[in-house]
Write a structure and sequence with these properties.
443 residues; alpha/beta; Rossmann fold; 2 domains; 8-stranded mixed beta sheet; 5-stranded parallel beta sheet; 16 helices; 13 strands
Amino acid sequence: MSPKPLTDPTSTTASKMQPKHTTIAVVGLGYVGLPLAVHAVSRGFNVIGFDIDEVKVAQLERREANFLDAGAQKDFREARSLAITSHEGALQGADIFIVCVPTPVNAEHMPDLRPLESAAAVVGRALTEGALVVIESTVNPGVCEEVALPILERESGLRRGEFLFAHCPERINPGDKEWSVRNIPRVVGGYDLASRARALELYRTLIAAEVRAMGSLKETEAVKMVENSFRDINIAFVNELAMAFDRAGIDVVNVIRAAATKPFGFMAHYPGCGVGGHCIPVDPYYLIRFGYKNGFEHRFLKVARHTNNAMPGYTVDLLSDQLRVKKKRLKRARVALLGLAYKRDVSDTRESPALIIRDLLTSRGADVRTYDPYALSHSNAKKLEDALKDTDAAIIATDHRAFCSLTPHDFQKYHVDIVIDGRNCLDKRAFQDAGILYKGIGH
């Protein structure tokens, strides 16, 4: 079955050419790789999904992917022709390999490239002359050429130029109904012009959006670093404002909303109890490390990371202060922690500040009841009422819609009279008028 050309007459970026390759092997079947594999099937490609995690593969073969949002799960269940495997031999014969494995940092905030190195070795053993390899994993400038390419050459016995190699950093926003793998613009760079041309052809067939050609692999790698470091810096700025303005009795949320009425030169970011996920709290460390390697210190990035990493502790301190108003101590206090995922209405807990808040509360002697309807396996309460019953205070750590709709009565009926709104998602005035000690982050 040959891939379907995009036919949207309004699109100026979709390729009208039929690509030469027909079988895609997607290596890494997580939040990035699985939706991409499913979408490639819908575009008419033969697709093999590969992952080394045999337990995950068994679940995916049963069409179970609870880490995806509801819409993506539905698409996955309907993609019956998608082959799922953990056997390397199944990759033989593929003429496109797209690597979508995670690139985390370790406890010392150093880049952990072992998943990428392992994936490159797997691809290299199946690589044939003329095939295309695309790295979608987020990496700092230089990693594609200095880490991935040598492994591919070593394992395949081919030299660069005998196979095609490109980088197209992933862009995905879990839980977003408007922007998905289908329509988010992408950027592509290649080892050489032939590699870039082939990768552009591929993504312009896959994606109904702009696919921008970059001048080099390093430029392309730098794009994702800049995107997420930009957000991290701006979030750190408003978090710092929140802490400063709180001392002066200024509501920073109202200030930001007012500043956002300016139609140019301002982009609203909002404070919170911490930054989570697989990108924003990770990618700046890759850029910091890249700077060190090249004799440059990214002091601005380091300060931003320090500020955002401190927000879970600041949130716990807010709770401690409010407990003292009630003549209570954090030690032995019973606290409901609402939300464990890193963002609204998803189950992903990677790098979630809520987990840090939980651990800080526990280390300071609090009795913590955790509840997240999207992450019940991580919760010790299975219902909201179980979390709130007989507790002294509550912290909103994730702005799930179910939590944002809570009213003062929802807390008062369980005699909870202290609420720390770590996402500024509740009606501040309503809670204060109800006599609840309410404290947001600068709000």
